[in-house]
Amino acid sequence: MSVVFDRVSKVKRGYRIDQVDDFMTRARTQVDDPQRPPLVSAEDVRSASFSLQHGGYDIAHIDAALARLETVFARVERAAAIDEVGQDAWIEQTRERARIVLARLRRPEGQRFRRAGFIRFGYDIAEVDAVCDRIEDFLTRGGPLTADEIRETVFSRRRNGYAEWQVDLVLDRVISIILAIAQ
User: Which residues have a Cβ under 8 Å from the Cβ of 53 and sit 6 or more positions away?
Assistant: First the structure.
């Protein structure tokens, strides 16, 4: 698994090369030797962040590579979990995670998450609530939704909007649920 990533010009900023290379080396080691203790998990891939530097790696290309890598790791983790606890228990664990997310999404619009505060910026409430409605439709009725759609979601920032950390945490859980049930 040797990959060369595109770099941006020296006047543009991209991800720091040394940080990306280090992370990808650990991920490559994990893929090449799945029997060794995990160095990187799907959650680690999803939450990976890198500093910026002029002439760094192209952000869009790295983000796309991370999305593919997360999917691979999620499949491996799913298979390991099923081997360990059995498919029925694994399905029930995934359902329980979905129930926890649904409990939050079923709160009234405008009250699904904490507010950032009157002088602080948070995510636009109407935009977040619209995404929450799509997630609820997916979890309850099987409506269309992909992990990439959630990953690529960008919200406007507003004063006294929803607390970003809380929204991001729920979106991360939704991605893990989507990947857990993907075939």
Answer: 13, 14, 15, 16, 17
Which tokens hold the place of 129? 């609530």
* Every domain of the chain and the residues it spans: 13-83, 86-181
What would the two tokens of residue 102 be?
Answer: 């649904």
Q: What's the rounded Cα separation, in Å, for the pair 166 and 156?
A: 15
Contact of 10 with 55, CB cutoff 8 Å:
yes
Q: pLDDT grade, residue 63 (50/70/90)?
A: very high
pLDDT in tens, 40-51: 888 899 889 999
One-letter amino acid for residue 13 of the chain: R
- Sign for the CA dihedral angle at 126, 131, 132, 136 comes to positive
Identify the DSSP state of 110: T
Question: pLDDT > 90: what percent of the chain?
Answer: 71
From first CA to last CA, the distance across the chain in angstroms is 23
